[in-house]
Amino acid sequence: MTYTQSYNSPLGRIVLASREDALIGLWFESQKYFGRTLCEEVVKKETSILRDAHRWLDLYFSGHRPDFVPPLQLLGTPFQQQVWQQLLSIPYGATTTYAQLALTCHTSVRAIGGAVGRNPISLIVPCHRVIASDGSLTGYAGGTDRKKALLEMEQCLIG
C-alpha cells in the first residue's frame, strides 16, 4: 500500500508518497515524471514517515538545514540508485556538476542527466544541486525557476 499526502511549500504544492517503512516519492505537483513510483493502490493518509517528511520540509523551507533524513526507499534501476546515492552526498549549500558525477560513476554525462532527472524524492535527494559545468542551471524536473530558488535559498554560489 502507498500512502500520500500533500504539502504546501513556498514554491508550490508538493506530493509525498510512502510505504509503511519509507518515503518513496516527493514531487512538486505536475513536475516531469510526477508520481512515477506510484504503481499500486494509493490512499491519502498521514503516516509516521509522512510526518517525518513534513517536519523535514518545514525545517528546510524555514531556512534551516534538516539534521535528519526520513527513511527512504529509492525505487529505480541499480544505476539510478547509484547516482541518487551520490546526490545524497552533496552537502547543503554546495553544488556539483553532471560531469563530476559522470566521473564518479564512470559513465556519460547524458546517463547522469537521465538518472538525476528521474529522482523520485526531490529536495531530500538533492538533484537541484547538480548544475552544468559552465555553472548554468540546466534541467530540473520541477522547473529551472524552482531550481534557482532552491539554490538561492541554500545560498549556493550560482555561476
Automatic annotation (TrEMBL):
Keyword DNA repair (UniProt): yes
Annotated Methylguanine DNA methyltransferase ribonuclease-like domain residues: 3-73
Keyword DNA repair: yes
CDD domains given in the database record: ATase
Cellular component annotations (GO), alphabetically ordered: cytoplasm
Family matches, as PROSITE patterns: MGMT
A Pfam short name: DNA_binding_1
Top-rank EC class of the record's enzyme: transferase
GO biological process: DNA alkylation repair; methylation
Classification via PANTHER family: METHYLATED-DNA--PROTEIN-CYSTEINE METHYLTRANSFERASE
Function description: Involved in the cellular defense against the biological effects of O6-methylguanine (O6-MeG) and O4-methylthymine (O4-MeT) in DNA. Repairs the methylated nucleobase in DNA by stoichiometrically transferring the methyl group to a cysteine residue in the enzyme. This is a suicide reaction: the enzyme is irreversibly inactivated.
Name used for this protein in its record: Methylated-DNA--protein-cysteine methyltransferase
